[in-house]
Fold this protein.
Amino acid sequence: MRRTTGTAEKDGTRGEGPLPAALSVLVGWNGLTLHTPDEWSPVAVSGEGRQGYVKVVGPDTRHLEVKWEQPKGVVNVPQALERYLDRLRKTARRSRMELVVRTKPAGLGRLRPDDQAPIAYTWEAAQKAVGCIWHCGHCGRLVIAEVVGERDDDLSIARSILAGIREHGEDDWITWSLYGLTISAPVGFTMEKQVLMTGRQQFQLRKGGARLQADRWGLAELALRGGSVREWYEARERAALSRYAYRVEETVLRGHRAFRLVGRDRWWQALLKLARVPATLTWPCFFMQGYLWHCEASNRIYALIVEQSRRSTLLESVAARVPCHA
Ligand SMILES: [Zn+2]
Ligand SMILES: [Zn+2]
């Protein structure tokens, strides 16, 4: 967590102002969050634990790449940048191009808090990029982020994108956000599976025996055709729900009429989980709680299902943090 440059290690104020209205797309992966312009979409997310990678492409020839790692021991940001640029130089040389690099270029000052020891840079070869490297003393992440485009692209948006990247979550909550589905989960949950389609997104996260599943469907009015969201959901998810014995109560969530599911695994599902204990060495959670609601403002249907211990308040905390509408 130490580094040789930079000063204070405290997680100081981040100079957070309102984001430019143009940066409307939220991408969140394993603690890192960023905003890109409308119509940009994440095409690659990977990594867990100490490393990660996110790539978001624009509708034109521009894209954003963010790589991070959590190096052990002393971190030297200028040296890390040099190592990275050396790799780029080798690639450029192979295609007989020269890599023209400028560090701390005009117009890219004060991009990140000083205590992150940031170094802004640009490079130009067959393509060009505006980037920044920094190390966060709070989370220990060393981040390289750059907006890449063709040589005649306007990369002026890079400044706000790079300045808006948060490389760690707040208060031990991690934001996961792709294709419009945004949920926050406590630190330690990892993404096990994701479904990302235009009208339908799903995240499955796990931490030990606890499981958290979030679903979001678009075009709700059309799907429901005036019918009940509960009937629609129970018909649609019949197979997945058949593993639980549960009851449903009506309630209110974020101003919406909502359904609360409370139950537990059926005996055969519990046996399946117990059979896996020797392999996973994790005691399973047999209790289930969930929320289902139709967000009229955004015309989406949301479902949250949590498998947890009987007294856990995980579902309530997660549900309170789902930004289904503005
Ligand atoms: Zn950090
Ligand atoms: Zn809503």
The chain has two domains: 25-163, 187-319. The longest strand covers residues 244-253.
